[in-house]
Design brief:
By secondary structure, this protein is of the alpha+beta class. Helix content is 46%, strand content 15%. The longest helix has 26 residues.
């Protein structure tokens, strides 16, 4: 199944482009509006492309998705939820091919941005907590009222969250996160058998409700203090616990456990207007849904981050690992010893935690051209690459063979060369111009790389020199440095 998934994904993203903006312009005119500007919106984890269509009377959101089946599910669910008064965008226009559409625009402010500001401030404030409580109340309406009269034959990609769906999530974790890490040693046969038992148990939870599937703060827009919900096209019939866990255990939200407990009680109180949580044994299954969601998101971070090199997924990995570790200490999986073994081995993995920030981060690399260019995890496709091979090479001098560009002998050698200062001045001028511009435009990432033959002397010296210069010149900028061949990361 996973091979089919990957093949489908790459087939979709490699489809020939057509003029999406032209189609969106025509759709805008078809509803009586005049497009003034059409701006791409930053991509997320999906293959869908989003645009903000600016008109004389406001803005709209345009979307392109080659997966027509998924679009049809979104169209149906949007109409269904809209009819019962749930806060979802209104669908305004769809093209004949059913791969482009317009919807109402509820702005750029997500619940996650509120959460980020709270994290930067050091604590969850009353306003953000109130939004979370309001969102959980709305979730109950989706799960109970949204379920009523919903035709699950029209959802995508499957009508219900059943055992095969649980197995898919567990396999996603195994194939895209566990297997790529050779340091995680496990017995695959025993793990598969435990996955089956785990899925059988999860499947006993009552599931005659609407399951949003990706109910997390990035998919909740805050428009005039009201939450609006997007990205529900993967919804299906399923259990209640999964969506609650998805919000409360969104790993980069770092909701304190005490606050999670309070919010969970608030959710169950709202749910009590419709049914008794004790009658459906909500609490019995809840800890296992926390496990399921954390394992599933690690699989997603492995695929979207480690394989596709998307920055915010990679940045989320250490948070997910930490949440899993803490939860495992509280609820050890004694009845699933092989899965417990895998989770224990996850502690061997090292991914640095990145604190929440709204500042510009400049990543400076040194590398060897023989080994290839550095990966860019910011999702921007790369940055400056400076070739140091035309400069004097300390590596040709016997006394420097075992030294690097961070050792004072090599620094002194290069500093004495006039070419070094000419090169540095040019680099400072180019990089400084970009930093000034990025700060003005509130960009978050810039990458600057220096390459030489072996990645040991010249590239290390210039990367270190520029990193130190940026720190001194731009004190608000976060500087990360990677001397790739030296295995040094600061």
């Amino acid at each position: 199944m996973f091979r089919i998934f990957v093949n489908l994904f790459f087939r979709l993203i490699s489809m020939p482009d057509f003029d999406i903006q032209s189609v969106l312009s025509q759709l805008t005119q078809s509803i009586g509006a005049t497009p003034v500007d059409i701006k791409p919106i930053a991509e997320s984890g999906s293959a869908r492309k989003y645009f903000r269509v600016v008109t004389e009377n406001g803005s709209l959101i345009g979307a392109y998705n080659a997966n027509v089946e998924e679009n049809e599910a979104f169209f149906y669910l949007t109409e269904h939820f809209g009819k019962i008064g749930l806060n979802v965008p209104k669908l305004l226009a769809v093209n004949e091919e059913r791969n482009c559409y317009l919807q109402t625009d509820h702005g750029d402010e997500t619940l996650f941005q509120h959460i980020q500001r709270a994290l930067v401030a050091g604590a969850y404030d009353d306003h953000t907590i109130a939004l979370l409580r309001q969102v959980l109340e709305q979730l109950v309406h989706f799960q109970i009222e949204g379920h009523q009269g919903l035709d699950y034959s029209k959802v995508y990609p499957m009508p219900s969250f059943d055992k095969p769906a649980v197995m898919d999530d567990l396999d996603y974790f195994k194939y895209y996160f566990v297997k790529p890490h050779a340091e995680i040693v496990f017995n695959e046969t025993r793990l598969k058998a435990e996955f089956n038992r785990f899925a059988d148990f999860i499947g006993q939870a009552q599931s005659n409700f609407f399951m949003y599937r990706d109910f997390q703060s990035r998919n909740i827009m805050i428009d005039h203090e009201k939450p609006y919900f997007i990205d529900y096209q993967g919804g299906r019939r399923g259990p209640l616990q999964y969506d609650v866990v998805s919000l409360l255990y969104q790993v980069k939200a770092q909701i304190p456990q005490s606050l999670r407990d309070q919010l969970l009680e608030h959710y169950k109180q709202a749910l009590s207007a419709y049914l008794d949580p004790k009658a459906i044994e909500f609490d019995r299954y809840y800890p296992y849904f926390v496990y399921l969601r954390l394992l599933q998101v690690l699989g997603a971070y492995g695929f979207r981050g480690l394989i596709q090199k998307k920055a915010h997924f990679i940045e989320s990995i250490p948070y997910a690992l930490n949440e899993l570790k803490v939860w495992n200490e509280k609820y050890p999986l004694d009845e699933y010893p092989e899965l417990q073994n895998v989770i224990s081995h996850l502690s061997l993995l090292t991914f640095p935690l990145s604190p929440p920030t709204s500042h510009l981060t400049v990543t400076v690399n040194s590398f060897s051209f023989k080994k290839g260019y550095p990966d860019d995890f910011s999702g921007n496709g790369g940055g400056f690459v400076f070739d140091c091979r035309a400069l004097p090479n300390p590596g040709r001098e016997p006394q420097f063979k075992t030294k690097t560009g961070r050792d004072w002998e090599v620094v002194e050698y290069l500093t004495e060369k006039p070419q070094t200062h000419v090169f540095l001045d040019h680099v400072k001028g180019i990089v400084g111009q970009s930093i000034d511009n990025y700060l003005e435009r509130h960009f978050n990432n810039l990458m600057v790389s220096f390459g030489c033959t072996g990645g040991q002397h010249r590239s290390v010296f210039f990367a270190q020199s520029i990193a130190d210069w940026i720190k001194a010149t731009y004190p608000t900028v976060i500087v990360k440095i990677n001397h790739i061949e030296q295995h040094i990361h600061e």
